[in-house]
Structures are given as structure tokens and as C-alpha cells.
Amino acid sequence: MSKRVNIHDLAVGGDGVGRLEDGRVVFVAGAAVDDELLVDITEEKSRYTRGTIIEILSAGDGRRKPLCHHVPRGCGGCDWQHLSEEAQIEGKISLVEDALRKLGNISSPDVGYVAGPEPLRYRTSVRVGVENGRGAYRRAHSHELVQVDDCLIAHPLIDEILLEGFFAEASEVTIKVGARTGDQLVMGEPTAEGFRVPDQVSVIGRNRARKGDEAHIFEEAAGMTWRISARSFFQSSPEGAEMLVALAAEWLTLHDVGEQVLVDLYAGVGLFSGTVGDWFEKVTAIESSASAVADATYNLDSHVTIHRTSVEQWVPELADVVIADPPRSGLRSSGVEVIRKTEAPHVLLVSCDAGALGRDAALMTSAGYELDRVDVLDMFPQTSHVEVVSGWTKNI
Ligand SMILES: C[S@@+](CC[C@H](N)C(=O)[O-])C[C@H]1O[C@@H](n2cnc3c(N)ncnc32)[C@H](O)[C@@H]1O
Description:
The protein is α/β, with parallel strands linked by helices. The chain has helices at 85-102, 156-164, 206-210, 238-254, 290-299, 332-342, 354-366; strands spanning 2-10, 16-19, 25-28, 36-44, 48-58, 111-114, 125-131, 134-138, 145-147, 172-177, 184-189, 202-205, 216-221, 224-229, 261-265, 282-287, 304-308, 321-324, 346-351, 369-377, 387-394. It has an 8-stranded mixed β-sheet with strand order 6-20-21-19-18-15-16-17, with helices on both faces. Strands 9-8-7-10-11-12 form a 6-stranded mixed β-sheet. Helix 6 links the parallel strand 18 and strand 19 (346-351). The chain is globular.
């Protein structure tokens, strides 16, 4: 069924948002604000529908020709390639403002914007599907794969592996590289048997990594060299990691805090503990992943106490500052409850999903915290992904 739709907004997840004559919302992948479109309605629910573009009848001002030749082939790896840089920036700020207003009940959030790394060739870690042994991204809202032998947002060291790699029977591969060290690593899911990659690339199957086999890269960022194992999280580029640390340092300076107790929740391989953590007398890092804890133990010095546990199971200690950088699902009520029990007067929250930020903002407010600063850090150009750093101060 085809319908004419005017797009008036962009939604968390990147789709354009319009309305059908019957009042239902329609989400359209690849749409821009003020587009007038002919769409095929592909999914119908009682409150919303989903459509795909048949024809662009009139293009919104923010639309441009995608830079990457895989986008017209259906690659869903970068969902905002069709938006100009200005439209991407406006879109990200407005996603975060909307989430804070509608989900966080914060009436007029003042959202800052911090430009990210280079707009192309920045990502130092990607996870791709595998089709006939070759790397492939998924189409938007689909499990279908689109083979790619290069990727415009991936670092050239990743491109080399996408171009030359053969990933045999794996269903998925994670590729990590050290932009500043030249290290390259591929992890196959569930196995890396039969892989063919350039000689210098470390290879491991998740099955073997789970049993304790080691494969890691090193990366340099924020004045440190970080060991990052195949299964450990690291920010999407060293520049992005440095920008996050710089924002944290700026916010700590603004509040004149340091020298006391820092709790680093969801600590990963130790990015915050190992950098701004140096300003504190005592640092406690909480992380649930075994490989990230092993890396953090390698990366950090002895003034950081690392607990391998989930945030939810950790018995909270009193803190002066909490930095919390949860996964996409956000803090949720269990994470906010842990923060509340630390009695920390200052909390820096790093959110990688605008919806989760909005929900966490409402929970933080209920726990007695007030938003004192919020910035979108544009770490993922060409995509709708946001990284948001928000500062919270306890009401006295
Ligand atoms: C977004 S990463 C942030 C890592 C680190 N702060 C950094 O900037 O590199 C989130 C981290 O939280 C860890 N994690 C996920 N759920 C957790 C939980 N419930 N408790 C503790 N750690 C968790 C993941 O393993 C991952 O290392």
C-alpha cells in the first residue's frame, strides 16, 4: 500500500517520522526532515506503521546524495549518510532535547554540541555479518546482508581486513584496530576456523576467547597506551576517547572536585579511572566483563581498586564523584539506586542512547539530582548514534 507522507522529525534509531491520514505515526528509514515522500507501508501496528521510500517527491533542505556507494545498495551501516552535516548535527541535538523533555521531564534542556573526530574513516572497531565468507552489513530494519569490501566510516586498517579477509563459516566478525599503534585483530563468532587475513592480523574465535585464549590490540589515547582484548569494549576512536576524557576533566574542574573518592561505574578497560582518576586519592572501578577487568588490571596503576562484578551486585561505597558509562540500555532504576547509595554530590553520566538518557534523567531527578550540563559529543558522524555527557549535582 503506497501513501504520501511529509516527514516532520527524526526519531531515536534514525528514521524519519511522519503521520498518515488516520493519525498513526509512520517511521521511514532514509528520510530527511521536510521530505515529501511516496512510501510503501511495510508494517502496520495499532499505534504506528513503518514504510520504505518508493519515491522522493520533494526533498527536504537537509538531504544530500550519500557519500558511500554501498548506501544505494541498501547497506544500513550508516543510517544518516543521506543527511548533510548540518542536518545531522541538528538531528542529534533535537533527539537529545526531545528525550530529555518527553522522557526525562526536563522542561527546557540546554543541550551543547561538541564536534567529533573526522567525519569519515574514524571507527576503529566494527562488527559485521558474514555472507559467503565476506564481511557484510545489515540492511536497515532487516536481517538481510549487503556485502561490503570497504566502509567509508571505518579506519583504513579495518578496510584492509574487509577487502582481503575471508571469514569462512563465521556468522559475524568483530574487527578492532589500534589507529595509533597499527595493531589489527579479528574475532570470529562463534569460531575463526578457516579465516584468511593478512599475516600481521591477530585472529581469535569467540569460542576460544571464552576459554581464556588471549588476543588483544593496543591503542594510544589520552596520554596512555591501552590494552584492549577481543571481547573488551573501547570507544569508537582514540579521538573520541580523548574528547570524552576532556569533557569529564572540564566538568570536574568546573565543580572543583578531585582529590577524594571517585567511583567509576561500567569502567571497561579503565578509560576514566586511568585518566581523570589520577586526580583522586582513591578510585573504585566496577566492571562485569572478565576480559575488560583483565585489561583494566593491566592498564591501571595500583591506586585504582577494580571489582569484577555487575553494578547491580556491587555494595555501594560512599563517593565524592561517580562517573557512570553504562551500555545502551542505560542505568535503569537499579543503576540509579546504586548511585544514590554512594551519596555522591556529583555524577557524570555518559549515555550512548538518547532514549536511555531520557529515562535515566527522570530516575536521576527522582533520586534527588539536578541536571547541570549536557553535551552531545558527535562521536559517530554519518549515523544517528549519539554519545551524551550529562553532569548531575545532588540537591541539598
Ligand atoms: C559503554 S562501555 C564503557 C566502558 C568505559 N567506561 C570506557 O569509556 O571505555 C560499558 C561497559 O560496561 C560493562 N557493563 C555492562 N553491563 C554492566 C553491568 N551491569 N555492570 C557492570 N559493568 C557492566 C561493559 O562490559 C562495558 O565494558
